[in-house]
Design brief:
heterodimer; A: 315 residues; alpha+beta; Alpha-Beta Plaits; 2 domains; three-stranded mixed beta sheet; two-stranded antiparallel sheet; B: 407 residues; mainly alpha; Formate dehydrogenase/DMSO reductase fold; 67% helix; 1% strand; globular; Hydrogenase (chain A); FDH_Electron_Transfer_Unit (chain A)
Chain lengths: 315, 407
């Protein structure tokens, strides 16, 4: 009796230790924008669709071109394993055009980061491990190919359909914008020391600009206030899905939905999912308690059964 | 367990026609898998950036483990609720579970793009504790081990009866040791599926706006748990019935009827939980327009309700064929709900469409086939199946029991 009770305890502790680790993540709070977060502001009314940013992005990130049928011209019509940044043109009913720049939104509480098993996708400085030269609080969603198993759950999770996969490679990667983190210049001060997006650098109209998110948000609101007849009156990304670090402005009469940006609640999907999934675990207490109770009951039932049969047969 | 419902090694010819068909299908899938490792996932599958999981995740993992949950659901009744009468069903159920879960794990390795990095999964230091998939992966890996440990008593018992002195010694020595430790493994086998089966539903919580509102609900984990129990009971009744037809397995109709009443209750519960949730969250409006999604919703609901009513009908309970039919329907119900929640109700975005490719289907079918093959091998060599009127105890490879050629 004494031995079995001790082993029952041991078993419970072993199982509990494993689940307690899992349970640690349960005290999940809503994520707020960090003061040092960097991002981009894309003003659709300023974009002329020259696609210089698309080309420059490929150059800066060493990505192959998507050749046109005649093999002459790089013309990706959507993000893909070769393309981290794309300009889309959307015709509206009145014969008007609206441009849309699509790349990673660098969410405040990203779905991809929430679901990634080993933190291959992680917000800079907030990951499970600290990578060399990471800046705390920048909030850039970075990709670490060394811990990625290619499960593609990030693709299922992302509401903006951003992460792409190299489908035709034997050793594929997940491909998405990392805000040209690799082009950061430590000799410079401010945001440029953190990252230096090629698309912002090359844009002839400053339709997309890079900087601290707080400053970009203030600038966006200033533009809305200064020109209410020009804009649709809303900054996309301020609150959508818990907020994003890439912000969007659109022309009057153009809905963000038309630009391909989903209508999302203010609560992030990551918060919702983690909250619902982890709640029943009560910080790992439930599995430990259930295991101990199950072990106790199973053992007791076994004893009763054996007593009834007078001869203990191995299961 | 009393003397006459003791499991017995079936024996007989190993390369039966069924076995050969299974191995053939598996060989075909191996060819596809081999090609996948050279060419990437894209060329063999219809998966895309919109539909990144295709059928491999929803079917090979989510449906296979649902069927494998027979080990869990039967174990719950037998060990936790002390319904000793279900003992004869346990060993086949556990073997089915071990095989189904192992195949699910193997399928995942093929689907993973960067499979060589999976070793990180064994290093808790890098785990992202917020990830629901991590919980599923860690839990399923542990459970696969627990399931095979649960299969071991049969193997050791077979060894103990072996004519070969070495195996007999091993079996006689370790069988009783394992028997002592079993309750602790059984307890783990009750808790682990409770966790990962609900998490399998929880995986799609994050999809939010991409999932049709009729499927996306905070109750996804609850529904996944109920459906796996129902699928499990269905699978056990179906399996034992099939074993009865082929190998004269003990098939106690009253036992099936009792088990099926439990199953019927679960199927009803599933539909009630779902409908109440839909009504409570103001989603009734989605039931107003008949479209692709509503079609699947209605089909699903019918698949849950029809076997539920059948299980409670006296006529069905007494009729072997009808009860088997209802059991199969209850597996199909859970399977369709799972496939819907992962695939048909999932919107991969404008411009993306998905229809499984022949390569993907070949891998899924091949995996199922090799599962059947493994079951045949283990049940022929080791005492897993409880055979009718088996007066004598098991003898490995002995017994002129019917060959499986009949199926």
């Amino acid at each position: 009796m004494r031995i079995s009770r001790r082993s029952l305890l041991k078993g419970a502790v072993a199982a509990g230790a494993a689940t307690a680790v899992v349970g640690r993540a349960e005290a999940r709070e809503k994520r707020e924008v960090e003061a040092e977060a960097v991002g981009m502001l894309y003003d659709s009314t300023l974009c002329i669709g020259c696609r210089a940013c698309v080309t420059k992005c490929k150059e800066a990130n060493g990505l192959p071109y998507d050749r046109s049928a005649d093999g002459l011209y790089d013309q990706p019509d959507d993000l893909n394993g070769n393309t981290k940044n794309v300009i889309k043109v959307l015709a509206s009913e009145g014969g008007q055009y609206a441009f849309m720049k699509q790349q990673c939104m660098h969410c405040v509480d990203p779905s991809c980061v929430s679901v990634c098993m080993m933190g291959a996708l992680h917000k800079e400085g907030q990951g499970t491990r600290h990578h060399d030269g990471e800046v705390r609080g920048s909030g850039i969603v970075l990709y670490d190919k060394n811990t990625c198993v290619g499960c593609r759950y990030c693709q299922i999770a992302c509401p903006y359909l951003i992460p792409k996969f190299e489908w035709t490679k034997a050793f594929p990667l997940i491909v998405k914008c990392e805000l040209c983190r690799h082009r950061a210049d430590p000799k410079k001060a401010g945001p440029l020391a953190v990252a230096n997006p090629a698309c912002c650098e090359v844009c002839p109209r400053e339709a997309v600009v890079y900087g601290k998110r707080a400053e970009l948000l203030a600038e966006a609101k200033r533009r809305l206030a200064a020109n209410p007849q020009k804009y649709n009156g809303h900054v996309y990304g301020e609150v959508e899905g818990g907020g994003t670090q890439v912000l969007y402005l659109a022309a009057k009469g153009v809905e963000f939905k038309q630009l391909g940006l989903p209508e999302l609640p203010e609560e992030s999907q990551a918060y919702f999912s983690e909250h619902v999934s982890h709640m029943p675990y009560l910080n790992g207490i439930t599995p430990i308690a259930l295991y101990a109770a199950a072990a106790f009951v199973v053992r007791r039932n076994r004893k009763k059964e054996e007593a009834a049969e007078h001869h203990g047969e191995g299961k | 367990m009393s003397g006459h419902d003791h499991p017995k090694a079936i024996g007989g010819k190993l390369f039966s026609p069924l076995m050969n068909v299974c191995l053939g299908l598996f060989a075909l899938s191996v060819a596809v898998m081999a090609y996948r490792f050279f060419a990437g996932v894209g060329p063999v599958s219809a998966m895309s950036d919109g539909y990144a999981w295709g059928i491999w995740e929803p079917v090979n993992v989510v449906v296979f483990t649902g069927i494998g949950a027979g080990a869990y659901s039967t174990g719950l009744l037998c060990y936790l609720l002390n319904q000793g009468k279900y003992h004869p069903l346990v060993r086949p159920a556990v073997l089915l579970g071990a095989i189904a879960y192992s195949l699910a794990g193997a399928s995942i390795l093929i689907a993973l793009g960067r499979y060589w990095n999976v070793y990180w999964l064994f290093l808790p230091g890098v785990w992202n504790l917020g990830s629901v998939l991590l919980e599923v992966a860690a839990c399923v890996m542990t459970y696969v081990m627990v399931l095979w440990i649960e299969v071991l008593p049969a193997v050791l018992e077979g060894a103990a009866d072996s004519k070969h002195p070495f195996w007999a010694k091993i079996g006689k020595k370790w069988g009783p040791v394992l028997a002592k430790a079993m309750p602790y493994f059984i307890a783990a086998a009750m808790i682990l599926p409770t966790m990962h089966q609900s998490s399998l539903g929880g995986l799609m919580l994050i999809a939010g706006p991409k999932l049709n509102p009729l499927w996306h609900t905070a109750l996804l984990p609850t529904l996944a748990l109920i459906s796996c129990l129902a699928m499990g009971y269905g699978a056990v009744v179906a399996l034992t019935n099939i074993l009865h037809m082929t190998w004269n397995a003990k098939a106690d109709q009253r036992l099936f009827a009792d088990l099926s009443k439990v199953n019927g209750g679960l199927l009803f519960l599933f539909v009630v939980v779902r409908l109440v949730d839909i009504a409570a969250h103001g989603k009734l409006k989605y039931l107003g327009v008949f479209d692709f999604h509503l079609f699947f919703f209605l089909l699903e609901t019918a698949l849950f309700l029809v076997p539920a009513f059948m299980f409670f009908s006296k006529k069905v309970q007494q009729n072997r064929g009808k009860l088997l039919g209802a059991a199969l329907l209850s597996i199909l119900a859970g399977a369709l709900w799972r496939i819907d929640a992962y695939l048909t109700a999932y919107n991969g975005g404008d411009g993306f469409e998905y229809m499984p490719s022949l390569g993907e289907i070949a891998v899924t079918v091949g995996m199922a086939a090799v599962g059947v093959a493994v079951f045949l091998v283990v049940a022929r060599f080791f005492p897993v199946v409880v055979v009718d009127d088996a007066r004598d105890h098991s003898h490995v490879g002995a017994g002129q029991v019917q060959a499986a050629a009949g199926r």
